[in-house]
Amino acid sequence: MSGYPNPPQPTWRKPVGMLLILALITVWAVIVGSCSGFIGQWPMPVQIMVYLIAGIVWIFPLKPLLAWMEMGRFRWRE
Fold first, then answer.
1. Where are the domains of the chain?
2. pLDDT in tens, 3-58
3. Cα–Cα distance for residue pair 57/15, rounded to 1 Å
4. Any long-range contacts for 26-31 (C-beta under 8 Å, 24+ apart)?
5. Which of 1, 22, 57, 70 is the most exposed place for a label (fewest CB within 10 A)?
6. H, E, C per residue of 5-52
7. Long-range contact pairs involving 13-22 (C-beta distance under 8 Å, separation at least 24)
8. CA Rg, the chain, in Å?
9. Quick check: 75 and 67 in contact, CB under 8 A?
10. Does the structure show a pLDDT above 60 at 78?
11. Measured between alpha carbons, how far is residue 32 from residues 21, 28, 39, 59, 65 in Å?
12. Is the dihedral of CA 21, 22, 28, 29 positive or negative?
């Protein structure tokens, strides 16, 4: 039994947010994968940098999405 008198109820935002995160990852992977033929013609050091950047860039939209999932707003309260 929980120590809370009224345990917090899960909201619909969490499952919707999880689906949006999966959709974001899928769309980003398709975009990067569709560019692989073009990127594959570049020198190896350039390819490494492009894929490193592409592997990190998709994370930036997650902060507002996670804030929305948690608080219902797209910005963290400062």
1. 13-71
2. 667 766 767 889 999 999 999 999 999 999 999 999 999 999 999 999 999 999 98
3. 23
4. 28/54, 28/57, 28/58
5. 1
6. CCCCCCCCHHHHHHHHHHHHHHHHHHHHHHCHHHHCCCCHHHHHHHHH
7. 13/68, 13/69, 13/72, 14/69, 16/69, 17/65, 17/66, 17/68, 17/69, 18/69, 20/65, 21/62, 21/65
8. 18
9. yes
10. no
11. 16, 6, 9, 14, 21
12. positive
Show the tokens assigned to 34.
């569709």
Query: CA distances (Å), 71 to each of 5, 30, 75, in order?
Result: 21, 30, 9
Q: Token digits for 22?
A: 């999966």
